[in-house]
Amino acid sequence: MIRSLFPDVGIDLGTANTVIYERQSGVLLSEPSVVAYDAKRGNKIVAVGRAAREMDGKAPDRIKVVHPLHAGTISDFKAAHTLVTTLLERALNLKGAMHPRVIVGVPGCATDIECKAIEEAVGQAGARKAVFVPQAMAAAVGAGLEVSQARPSMVVDIGGGTTEVGMLALSGVVVLHSIKVGGESLDRAIASCLRADHFQIGSLTAERVKIRLGYAGRPLGREPLRISGMDQVAGGPAGRSIPEEMIGEALLESLDAISRAVRFVIEATPPDLTADLLETGIVLTGGGALLPGLAGFLGERTRVPCSVAPEPLLCVARGAGEILATPSLLERVAPQADRLTRWYRSIRLGVKESYSP
């Protein structure tokens, strides 16, 4: 397919992964949100994305592996700038091309400073304009939900650093709740569980264990997984078989936090909208939605039908791209990002201010 001279690009700048989507071409790039630089060579960039992720926990001391985003917000502005600039240039190969419009899905907890940093990075990569939209709205559109109708659309976007729960109707956010629990929280819970049993593993191994043995609800009856790590009692490397039930118990606290966030949004929603939820249900997006049994687990906890969106990892980026390509929807959705930012800032400052779309 021939790319437009003025492509419209959607970006999901996630804690764990960054996804870049163009409506005409589909997903252009999906890579880990990781940057590696050489501290002894003037912080020269060594790798960005997948190559940098593979260095995590393995590189020598002079190579610093940085995750620019933590819990859905920017923790290292310089690295975040490098990440966005490099990946956008890599995705679009902007040399000699016309500059695209870019739309970025941001969590409600994003600050003005963070949005400005992203805007500058996008501009340096060659974009002529950057627009921000609520992440929950982008996820819902990317999941194929009819957000413009009066009937509610409820989305639970479980990313690497945050889970954002949104109740949407009439192209607006009715209720939004964001917690700093996501895929990385599950990884840390697994590592912590094993560390309590005097066995230490790295983040890459914890993620692999989560993917192979993680579940919500009832065990699936899978065989134990043998992994390698550090036996803290013997003081050396060792192997160990990890049972499925052990991982399920390790994840339960984080999964309970997600279910409480979902119930909070349901309880805060006007009754006329919640009455329709039994028909419209809840849709899960983000990488965390791939955890086996999670939809059933949340369905039991909330008494509302839950399902997983097709290609949940791509929903935010795809939805952002679709919004940018639909002027009528963009006009109604984009201004909400500013109001959501002010609302979350008031919460952090201890000011009681309600959010209204």
Structure in words:
The protein has 357 residues and is an alpha+beta fold. It has 3 domains: 8-33 and 68-135 and 316-348, ATPase, nucleotide binding domain (Nucleotidyltransferase, domain 5); 139-181 and 255-313, Nucleotidyltransferase, domain 5, CATH 3.30.420; 183-250, ATPase, substrate binding domain, subdomain 4 (Actin, Chain A, domain 4, Alpha-Beta Complex). It is built from 13 helices and 18 strands. The chain has helices spanning 50-55, 77-92, 112-124, 135-142, 183-196, 203-213, 244-268, 271-274, 277-280, 294-302, 315-324, 327-333, 335-348, and strands at residues 8-13, 17-22, 26-32, 35-38, 44-48, 63-66, 69-70, 73-74, 101-106, 129-134, 153-158, 163-169, 172-179, 199-200, 225-231, 236-242, 282-285, 306-308. The strands form 5 sheets. A 5-stranded mixed beta sheet has the order 3-2-1-9-10, sandwiched between helices. It has a 5-stranded mixed beta sheet with strand order 13-12-11-17-18, with helices on both faces. It has a 3-stranded antiparallel beta sheet with strand order 5-4-6. It is flat. It starts with 7 loop residues before the first strand and ends in a 9-residue tail after the last helix. The model is unreliable at 341-357 (pLDDT under 50).
